[in-house]
Amino acid sequence: MKILSIIISTLFLLTSSAYAQKTKPSEQGVKTSIENGITTATFKVWGNCSMCKKTIEKSLKVEGVTKANWNVDSKMISVSYQAGKITLDQIQKNIAAAGYDNVAYKGNDKAYDKLHECCQYERKK
Predict the structure, then answer these.
(1) I want to staple 59 with a disulfide (CB 3.0 to 4.6 A). Which of 3, 23, 98, 125 is the partner?
(2) What pTM does this model have?
């Protein structure tokens, strides 16, 4: 009976782990989901306007990213990507390199200083 209980507990843990890989919130305010081999991550990126939107989305026109959409009002970006070609960490670094703070990285100071005046948002601490 004890062995059966251990087997059932193990199966439950394995099933729970498999589900957690499909949809999970991360410690850094990132929500991810996987569908048909494409990972979609949603997280906050600071910015102000439609020019910011263009720059942020342009920073993700790289191999592995299939779609990027930053919302001016909510400051949330939704990025769909092929995890075998690019990582979420690299996506967040690309955005930061363009001068935009996000939940994982502070934007590059030199790139931020070059942003149009209307794009210079209140910086992340």
Answers:
(1) 98
(2) 0.77
